[in-house]
TrEMBL record:
Family, per entry: Belongs to the aldehyde dehydrogenase family.
InterPro entries: Ald_DH/histidinol_DH, Ald_DH_C, Ald_DH_N, Aldehyde_DH_dom, ALDH-related_metabolic_enz
Transmembrane segments: none
Domain Aldehyde dehydrogenase intervals: 16-473
Gene3D superfamilies: Aldehyde Dehydrogenase, Chain A, domain 1 (3.40.605.10), Aldehyde Dehydrogenase, Chain A, domain 2 (3.40.309.10)
Keyword line: Oxidoreductase
Name recorded for this polypeptide: Aldehyde dehydrogenase family protein
One Pfam family it belongs to: Aldedh
Length: 479
């Protein structure tokens, strides 16, 4: 007797719906079956957008206290089921169970901050009498929701990055349609479940599962969708810009994050921070430490300690509390990283440790003396690979840090405030962490980059600014 798997439903404008066509969700660790989700059609997305038109009106009419209440109840629901959420993140993605638990905790915080920021969507009074002949005018501006937001989210933070789009959208009175990564849709559906239990009115939120080449263009190009919030690769981001038309666009794209370690740094702290920053989520992290520029006088000591700490990282079963690094999102991705490392070594790079693949697992890897023409020197690796470079001083380190076409975040380890300030002023990045790795982030801060690393900023308050428009009100008085 064959057991029929019912599979998950997608959340279309407040309704949980099945579809005959499905997508299989598998655990990248062993390719085992987890579940199925609907493979939405173009017609599904068009119907969803039509429902979202009404949802935008409903959301805009919700008083702030109701928006706050719904978001807090969604956060409560996740907190009460946090083990379920963490297990889902770990199983469908690359994170270990410890990393998944931290992502769940961050998602709860992201939603709670969103609820609080809903009460702080302020305008300002405008002194119209600053211009001669306008003595009898007074007024102000206030912010209004833009309408329908389309969100396209990646696999590497399948819950919290979705929350970073959904939380601000609902807080600011918008409708939102989420198209999650095809390989990790279950966490996004669980977020929709939390909002359904939180009492969010139908049609305000949709989570539509499907293949990007079938439904992505519909979401991106539809004139009723007034903003696209995208997190993903540069090529996909550039394609969205070309297709989107006249609408707001917010993008967090790739990176090749540098960290500078100067001779006066606390080397033990620098090693611990940069190792963690390099290998979190198997290096599949937009903030992942990729390049480390170390001053000559401390290079040998730093290199020895960094390699030793790297070799202590335990690669294995994601669901074990003892594991530090799980698999990449697929064997295909592990093969891609393996190819990049081999290319660098063939061109002259020195392999200090790692460089080994086992299925979808890729062992933490450290390279040195990397030729400038190597792909890993210029592009985002998105895997557990770090490159060490020797520099003479902070000026050379800054210059080399800026040579790539990305600029998301950076780090510098030094006790010299003048050198830190020089890095702050001259490094071409959206954020710089002093005495911390590039990987540091809290959910309330503005987050985004320059150059090919993206457009605009996430972080709840800053996302809300993008998701609202100022409207000027001016009264002409009779006297």
């Amino acid at each position: 007797m064959t057991t029929q798997v019912a599979g998950q439903k997608m959340y279309l404008a407040g309704r949980w719906v099945h579809r005959e066509r499905t997508i299989v969700v598998r655990d990248p660790q062993d390719n085992s079956f987890i579940d199925t989700v609907p493979a939405a059609s173009k017609e599904d997305m068009l119907a969803c957008i039509e429902q979202a038109r009404e949802g935008a009106k409903i959301a805009a009419a919700m008083p702030v206290y109701e928006r706050m209440d719904v978001i807090h109840k969604a956060a409560d629901y996740i907190e009460n089921h946090k083990e379920k959420y963490a297990l889902t993140i770990a199983r469908e993605g690359s994170k270990t169970i410890r990393e998944a638990a931290k992502e769940t905790a961050r998602c709860i915080q992201t939603l709670r901050i969103s609820a609080e920021e809903a009460r702080r969507i302020h305008g300002e009074t405008i002194p119209f009498d600053q211009m001669e002949g306008n003595d009898n005018r007074v007024g102000y501006y206030q912010r209004f929701p833009i309408g329908i937001i389309g969100a396209i989210t990646p696999f590497n933070d399948p819950l919290n990055l979705v929350a970073h789009k959904v939380g601000p959208a609902i807080a600011s009175g918008n409708a939102i349609i989420v198209k999650p990564a095809t390989v990790t849709p279950l966490s996004a559906l669980l977020l929709a479940e939390a909002f359904a239990h939180g009492g969010l009115p139908p049609k305000v939120l949709s989570v539509i599962t499907g293949h990007g080449n079938e439904i992505g263009d519909v979401l991106v190009t539809h004139p009723a969708v007034r903003m696209i919030s995208f997190t993903g690769g540069v090529e996909a981001g550039e394609e969205i810009v070309r297709k989107a038309g006249l609408k707001k666009i917010s993008m967090e794209l790739g990176s090749n994050s540098p960290v500078i370690v100067l001779e006066d740094a606390d080397l033990e702290a620098a090693v611990e921070s940069t190792v963690s920053g390099a290998y979190w989520a198997a290096g599949q992290n937009c903030l992942s430490v990729q390049r480390i520029y170390v001053q000559q006088s401390v290079m040998r000591k730093f290199e020895s300690a960094f390699v030793a700490r790297t070799n202590q990282y335990r690669v294995g079963d994601k669901l074990s509390e003892d594991t530090d690094i799980g698999p990449l999102i697929s064997e295909k991705e592990a093969l891609r990283v393996e190819k990049l490392v081999h290319e660098a070594v063939e061109k002259g790079a020195e392999l200090l440790t790692g460089g080994r693949r086992d299925g979808a697992f890729y062992y933490p890897t450290v390279l040195k003396n990397i030729p400038d023409e190597s792909t890993v020197a210029k592009e985002e690796i998105f895997g557990p690979v770090v490159m060490l470079y020797e520099v003479t001083d902070v000026d050379e380190a800054i210059e080399k840090s800026n040579e790539v076409s990305y600029g998301l975040q950076a780090g510098i380890f030094t006790k010299n405030i003048d050198k830190a300030q020089k890095a702050i002023a001259r490094m071409e990045v959206g954020g710089i962490m002093i005495n911390d790795s590039s990987d540091y982030r809290i959910d309330a801060m503005p987050f985004g980059g320059v150059k090919k690393s993206g457009l605009g900023r996430e972080g709840i308050k800053f996302a809300i600014q993008d998701m609202t428009e100022p409207k000027v009100v001016c009264y002409k008085l009779s006297n």
